[in-house]
Amino acid sequence: MRAGIVGAGVGGRLLSLGLAERGWEVCIFDKDTEEGRESCSWTGAGMIAPYCEQESAEPIICNVGLRSLELWPKILAKLPEKVFYQNDGSLVVAHPNDADELHRLQREVESRDFEGDVMQVLDAKGIGNIESELYGRFYTGLYFPYEAQVDNWKLMKVTPIAMAQAGIDCNFNTEVTGIEPGRLTVNGETVEYDMVFDCRGIDASDDIANLRGVRGELLHVTAPDVGLTRPVRMMHPRYPLYIVPREDDRFVIGATKIESHDLSEISVRGALELLSAAYALHPGFAEARIIETNTHCRPAVTDNLPYIDFRDKLTIFNGMFRHGFLIAPALAEAIIQQICDGKVTNAAAPLMYFNGKRAQESF
User: Would you list the domain boundaries of the chain?
Assistant: First the structure.
């Protein structure tokens, strides 16, 4: 069986590797470089935080994310080089004036009645025990011990090696000019496949009704004076901040969720908000050095849930919104289950569309 995949973000890459494991002959195309520096997957923080996302996401996103939490270590173990992965949980804090936002998240998680101690309510001392450099700066917080993060930059650099080793025909810097059921047109030539997978993200907005862009802006900094050891979120009604530590004193700082299809550089307002919020969290960021800024538009449909539609010889994999690294492994697994086994058996099953109709309309 031959698969033609258009789009090599995290979803397309995981899908290609999974299909290759099932014995498919896979060709993948993307107009970007093999590192995907112009993709949403490069412009991300790699957080795998299903419980924190209860603040604004549907419960099913948490369920799908929990399956991804199980899958990520298995995926990374198969790669030819080590990719930084941390499973030490995440911390959520708020200044006193923004405590209502923190309590709202607490209520959302408590309402789900999860099994086990998935959330711990902390006082100032408890915060200090989790992140010593935040002791005395915040007086209430939430700790989610099972959440994780993956270094998306390293992942995007290593996956092309794994894909080549798996025998996948990788065509980067290549634009597909025609997508049809069972057919792709590339460089003026039309090639037939048993199944075409459209994973183009926001580039598919002309072909998918109601697909819109949600702009994200991030800063990458080096900050030797900051010793945070796990992802930290600071709740705020307008721009909730997240700071994600990586190796070699690097930190990813992000916050913005702007309804916009604008792919231009980071705005002054966005940069100022990110930097001032980071400094308010930890004064050590005052001497940080900005090494890169990233912007991109995450693809989302009206309900902000994934859009996966199985049609005759064409499968659409899109609409992951700002949850790409949280849900991509489980969604790729679900697609492979449906294509290869005829039935989705993981938590993503209710999200699937078949010829434009979703399997389950409410969650």
Answer: 2-50+152-210+302-358, 90-145+212-300
